[in-house]
Design a protein that fits this description.
The chain has about 210 residues and is of the alpha/beta class. Helix content is about 55%, strand content about 10%. It has a single domain, classed as P-loop containing nucleotide triphosphate hydrolases (Rossmann fold). The chain contains eight helices and five strands; from the N terminus they run βαβααβααβααβα. It binds thymidine-5'-diphosphate.
């Protein structure tokens, strides 16, 4: 099963990902946990370019293609081989982040991005996506509390981050069978309780 975590800045995905990994491992699931951009040696180098605050003036199209390059490597090196042997893959961001950030945020044509992404992921789609929904003002406030992790994309305007959030909500609304929206204004424990319930239900559901 392929599970992704999505959400705007400061939504608490990374903390949640770590806790979900511990939970599933303790329940005996064979699993790997990866993040985007990154998750492979090649992807990690692409990540450094993408997040480097010195890279001002990066064209949105170049940004999208760099995220896609990292994703193409991750899918082939980690995600697909693990799914093929029955391992649960938990991914901190995936293709939907590109649709929300580069598509809705930068206002690139979402249909064009989807078309290119079919080539990038070989059509792979998550089975379940948890959206940690938080207002951009609150998310960015949380991010500022950890200045060492502040990156090039965090510095985009509040209008950009508002479009990203609306984009995520729209993607979730368009595909309610795959997406579950979780209110990320709650405490980390409350978010974990909701997320773990949704995840365990999905994993324990007999496949037809
Ligand atoms: P990261 O520090 O991993 O942030 P987070 O903890 O919020 O995931 O930085 C990744 C940044 O890249 C984040 O601002 C979201 C952005 N991003 C895109 O713009 N498009 C993408 O396709 C992906 C995967 C991430």
């Amino acid at each position: 099963m392929f599970i992704t975590l999505e959400g705007p800045e400061g939504s608490g995905k990374t903390t949640l990902c770590e806790r979900l990994e511990l939970l599933l491992t303790s329940k005996g699931y064979d699993m790997v946990c990866v993040r985007e951009p990154g998750g492979t040696l090649i992807g990690q180098q692409v990540r450094d370019i993408l997040l480097d605050q010195g890279n001002t003036g990066m064209a949105p199209q170049a940004e999208f293609l760099l995220f896609s390059a990292s994703r193409a490597q991750l899918v082939r090196e980690v995600v697909k081989p693990n799914l093929e042997t029955g391992v649960v893959v938990l991914c901190d961001r995936f293709l939907d982040s590109s649709l929300a950030y580069q598509g809705y945020g930068h206002q690139l044509d979402v249909d064009v991005l989807r078309e290119i992404s079919g080539f990038v992921t070989a059509g792979l789609q998550p089975d379940l996506t948890l959206l940690l929904d938080v207002l951009p003002e609150e998310g960015l406030r949380r991010r500022k509390q950890a200045p060492d992790t502040w990156n090039r994309l965090d510095a985009y305007s509040i209008e950009f981050h508002s479009r990203v959030r609306s984009g995520f909500l729209r993607l979730a609304k368009d595909n309610p069978n795959r997406w579950k929206i979780i209110d990320a204004n709650q405490s980390a424990d409350a978010i974990f309780n909701v997320a773990s319930k949704v995840l365990l239900e999905a994993l324990e559901k007999p496949s037809v």
